[in-house]
Amino acid sequence: MKIYPFLHQCAERVFIILGGALKLSLIQLQNVSKRFAEVTALDRVSVTVQTGEMLGIIGHSGAGKSTLLRMINGLEQPTEGEVFIKGKDLAHLSKIELRKLRSKIGMIFQHFNLLTSRTVYENIAFPLQIVGKKNAEIKMRVEELLERVGLTEKRNSYPSQLSGGQKQRVGIARALANHPEIVLCDEATSALDPATTDSILHLIQEINRETGITFVFITHEMSVVKKVCSQVAVLEAGQIVETGDVAEVFAHPGHPVTKSFLGLTSSEGGNRIVS
Ligand SMILES: Nc1ncnc2c1ncn2[C@@H]1O[C@H](COP(=O)(O)OP(=O)(O)OP(=O)(O)O)[C@@H](O)[C@H]1O
Fold it and tell me: What sequence ranges are listed for the domain ABC transporter (predicted)?
């Protein structure tokens, strides 16, 4: 193993562990609004995510979830308000700084977004090639990731030869390739059956525990939030209507939208099991 990548990985790991221990805010949105012509997609949204947390952002279609995710990875700029990642205001970063920061944010997609003409190995190698890693380093990292997501045997298969769960495992490995500090999951399990969803969520949970990587999930399924998230934010018509610790919100939902996601009527309390 070359010494530089090893030291680099160690430094990143130390940052993640220290960040978690010191409860540093990794992601902070302050009064963020986003307007597209007549549409207000986000309306004075404030969210704080600590290092190592698993945040679930739940909302109906059109609530603003994707827009919120795109704010976090700098693909969308707020009309008002600020987005800070590791204390840095994204609006004040140069293009190079923004690109560097974005290379530390992985993405997992509902429909996997794999390159169909490339093998499993090549899909995972792709983000490493983009940042100019050397072949030996790429090989070592891809082998490690193939093993971690349980796809070593499928290294030479093409996406069309994989099940949905296997495709998402490739998506996860690809998202982890550049040692991200944040992984954004855009409806990552919505195209999967319940058993496969469970295995993917279990894998993500294990990766969070092993690495301390912060995960942000957007979903319209409360069961996903319940299974993996520590914090939840409920988004409705561009506003966060309820937020907090998952156990607390599940036990005592306050807002009618939260209650409806939990399968409760507005007059009912919490404690119903969402499977
Ligand atoms: N680029 C855009 N131009 C115009 N309107 C947009 C744009 N992006 C999003 N919107 C609008 O902003 C609102 C929020 O959209 P967004 O995609 O963030 O919601 P969502 O909660 O992710 O929905 P879904 O679950 O259906 O993907 C919607 O009314 C949408 O039509």
Answer: 27-262
